[in-house]
Structures are given as structure tokens and as C-alpha cells.
Amino acid sequence: MNTKMDFTLITGASGGIGAALAREFASRQHPLILVARRQAEMEDLAAELRQSHGIEVVVMPCDLSQPRQVDNLLAGLSRQGLAVDILVNNAGFSAAGEYLHTKAQWQEEMLAVNLAALNRLTRALLPHMVRRGRGGVINLASTGSFVAGPNNALYCASKAFVLSFTEALHHELKGSGVTASALCPGATDTGFAARAGLQDTPIFRGPLLTSQQVARAGLRAFLGKKSKVVVGLGNRLLVLLLRLTPRQMATAISGRLTRHEVFRNQGSIMRHRGGV
After folding, report:
1. 155 annotated active-site
2. Total Cβ atoms within 10 A of residue 47
3. 18-48 pLDDT, tens per residue?
4. Interhelix angle 153-172/118-132, nearest 10 degrees
5. CA–CA separation, 87 vs 90, rounded Å?
6. Which CATH class is domain 4-274?
């Protein structure tokens, strides 16, 4: 079987930061594999990128919360001879609200996407990169990686895992020619807040980053072999402040920033999936 080389695989590529990352990689002539649940949106993006940049774009629908679909995705890559040199684990899942007021099924699916699928894809695709001595992994973390997150407890905990894992992997890969980099945006204008019911919380009321800003910063950090990047001066200052603040106080501040009265009065039945 002939193997096609040098593909960049992006999960959560049907919109938001994932689509912006696809456009950034396409502008640098990277052939792409787009992975998400929403096939129609990916097909539209693929057509745009093929026309604009003349690159090969493969669309592979997959629900990353379902382990069998992750297995099928990896089998499809092998069957089609698609070798991945850069993996972008952008897909994410938020189940916002107090822990006991969010559905257990949603919590389990969130952990499957944010943790299990990210690990499975990394473990399956990274050996090829190391053998070739190039490429790497970009994992979407968050400013929430740096603090416990009341009203979004599992999401922030999952993003703390992503940051810790990526920084450790970055260290282990030194000298291999392969890079692992964590992309840590704050509140971003992707439609995430409205769909997750967070648009009225303090953290989403100020100026928001754009998906393009996040994507460009993430790609620059990856190409510069950085272990992580916090996007936006305000977010960098916030992370610094959180590190200097006693942990209990930082947790209380985080809870106020994401507090929404509906979470306390009615309980949360909100979720959103995508790359945020």
C-alpha cells in the first residue's frame, strides 16, 4: 500500500477554532484531514480550502465520544494510507453548571472526548512522527487549565490534564524532532458561550478573542517549539495572577467568573461540543 505523507489531522474541525486552524495550516500548504461529527460543515470547509489553496483535504466524520468510532477513524486512516505528521486535538466538550446539576451521561461523554480520545489518537499517531523525526501534536487546553473551575468543574479538570500531559510530553520528546504544544485560549468568540448558556457570565462579557487570533498564536507556538501558549495579554496576566493567588482564593474567583444564576436556581442541562 502506498502511504500518503505529511497530513495534518484536526479534530473538531467543523467550526470555531478548529476551522480557523485548518485555514492557517492550509495557507502553509499542509494537506488536511478534517475530523468532527458535522460532515456538511466539514465538506463546505474542505471545498473552500481546496479551491483557495489547491491542497488535498480528506473529510472523516467521527463522534469522538464513542470509542468504536475512534477505532473506525484510526482504521480508516490505515486503510486509506493516510499518514499523519501533525495531530491537532482541538475537539472539546463542555457540560457547564454545578457538578450535581449536570447529566452524568454528558459528563462521561465530555471526559471521553477531552481525555480518552485525545490520548488514544496521540498514542496511535505519535510513533510515526518519532520514527520520521518530525511533526508533532497540538492539544487544545484553556486558561481554565490553570485553576479549579466551580460551575465547570470537570471541564477545567480535563483541561488541566491536557496541559500537564502536553508539557510532560514536550519534555519527553526533546531531541526527537517532534514537538508537543498546548494551546491555551481564554474566552473566544466561537458561539460556544451562547450554545453552552454562558454568554451572560462575567468571563464572556468582556472583549473576546477571535478564532483566527487563537489559531495563529497556536501555530506560531508550535512552529517555535513552545510547550504552551496562553493567548492574549489579558489572559497571560490572569494566569500570572492566578499563580500568585492562594489556591482557595483563586478557586473562589474562578467560580464567580463562571457563575450563572440558572445553574443555582434550576440546575444546568446545558452542554456544547466543539473546539474551545
Report:
1. yes
2. 12
3. 999 999 999 999 999 999 999 999 999 999 9
4. 10
5. 9
6. alpha beta
**Pairing relation of β-strands 32-36 and 4-11?**
parallel
Higher-pLDDT residue of 270, 182:
182
Can you spell out the DSSP letters for the chain?
Answer: ---EEEEEEEESTTSHHHHHHHHHHHHTT--EEEEES-HHHHHHHHHHHHHHH---EEEEE--TTSHHHHHHHHHHHHHTTEEEEEEEE--EEE--S-GGGS-HHHHHHHHIIIIIIHHHHHHHHHHHHHHHT--EEEEE--GGGGS--TTSHHHHHHHHHHHHHHHHHHHHTTTTT-EEEEEE--SBSSSHHHHHT-TTSGGGTS--B-HHHHHHHHHHHHHTT-SEEE-SHHHHHHHHHHHHS-HHHHHHHHHHHT--HHHHHT-----EEE--
The CA–CA distances, whole Å, from 170 to 6, 186, 209 equal 20, 22, 26
Q: Where are the domains of the chain?
A: 4-274
| Radius of gyration of the CA atoms of the chain, in A | 18
In angstroms, the Cα distances linking 130 to 10, 86, 141, 174, 210 are 19, 11, 23, 11, 33
Compute the distance between CA of residue 137 and CA of residue 144 in angstroms, rounded to an integer: 20
pLDDT tens-digit profile of 50-80?
999 999 999 999 999 999 999 999 999 999 9
Catalytic hit among 25, 93, 146, 155: 155
